[in-house]
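Hi again,

Forgot to attach this to my earlier email, sorry! This is the prediction with alpha-D-glucopyranose bound. I've pasted everything inline since the attachment limit keeps bouncing my files.
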Amino acid sequence: MNEWWRTAVVYQVWPRSFQDSDGDGVGDLPGVLQRLDHLSDLGVDVVWLSPVFPSPQVDNGYDVSNYQDVDPLFGSLADLDALIQALHARGMRLVLDVVLNHTSDQHPWFIESRGSRESPKRDWYWWRAPGEVPGAEPNAWQSLFSGSAWQLDDATGEYYLHTFARQQPDLNWESPQVRAAMAEMLCWWVDRGVDGFRLDVISMISKAPANLLGFGPRLHDYLRELHEAVFAEKGLLTIGETPGISVAQAQRMTDPARRELDLVLEFEHVSLDQGATKWEARQLGLPRLKQCFARWQEGLAGTGWNSLYWNNHDQPRAVSRFGDDGEHRVASATTLATVLHLHRGTPFVFQGEELGMRNAGFTALADYRDVESINHYEAVVSAGQAPHEVLAALQRMSRDNARTPVQWDGSVHAGFSTAQPWIAVNQDHVEVNAAAQREDPQSVLAHYRRLIALRHDVPAVALGEFALLLPDHEQVWAFTRTHLDVQLLVVANLSDREVEADVPDTGWADAELLLGNLPGGRGGLRLRPWESRVLRRTR
Ligand code: GLC
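Structure tokens for the complex follow:
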């Protein structure tokens, strides 16, 4: 079994905001090509490219109208081929983000399906008659993007299911034809040279009657079928996005012997206190956060493998959410990175995270572009919530926080574009940008470079056994990693007050300092605000 990804680091490119090459204010594939030095310098192994397929862009490409081409907004198929080649020439791999749970309502399959109740593609989607009350939705399922998950289609008087926006109808994977079409499409991409797939909300492809989040009875069958038809023995990397997955389910899904997926993206550590909605934004406190990581470490220690992430295109910026994006921006961004990258699993870096980029800081509804945010605003304001409260919630949790252009330099559009970008550049780009960090050994960027190199060079970082220390400590995140005769101790101060990391075994005081995020300091286990250290000793 070729599990090369166990020592790899994945970097997510969200192309719309990465680099614009043609001056239309929208990032594109030639733009990604222009910035490959940044990725090689960082040392990442895999690029996960968010969707670039033709799309009406209702959900920024997660509404696909043709799976086998590139949207002119982003370039051409030839540009994508060139990107694959250029990445390969630099020893990097490309993982495509594919959306298999739903299509755009402009996909020819859906247009055909909605044409008539007798359409040969009718059962490619979920059509249902109105509920018992005439004209009512078939059931009470709510879309994750606000409102009912059912949309009445006047042409045939039936409703179709959409877990996300109404322009994103869910495919019916019960249909063997749908499954065959998907497998064929994925094989076409494999033949074109891609090295794997990130499978958008893959846990939803099998529906369960009581739950819109999926995990239906045939999920494992469908995954095994895809594995057999597409992934098997090709050395690909497959990453399933699986909101709501439990440790036990993840263990099954990533057990190599079951031939389903290599990695899953779980959501527990970015979830909120029980009962809170996303928009209430109540974070897990430190003890629960680190215990959550530890549970996943333990759960996938023997069988399966973890994914490690703080950020992606759906989450607010880590330094604003879990760190301190004011006085301690650099220290907290580097400490969050240290704890994440020193866990066992495959780490993910989302564009701009390696610069310590902050949340967008938008104050008006007109600043936002994301369909989820805009729908939410409209739904709750029309239900009576005060607009300023909703704007405050968007400021903390909107997905647009992650989607502002990458800050390459301090110039007017941050080096992202020569034109006004499709979404505003964060005003802090004058201070927070790649050009300012590239040569600065104390920068967030330099720290990410060191962390990625450490994973490649020190087997204990990639492979060592994990043990959490001080599980209930409110300020300190501490754990060990043990591989053969090498032991690492990670100690981090997740607060703005000095603290002594009183780990049980005192023998660490004069161990070798492998990596620290702050220069100087007193050494040992006394930690300044947001300081983190990785120590090494041989047993
Ligand atoms: C996933 C994507 C998200 C998208 C949704 C619907 O959660 O990461 O961006 O909106 O699926 O495709």
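The mean pLDDT is 95. The first strand starts at residue 10 and ends at 13.

That should be everything now.

G.
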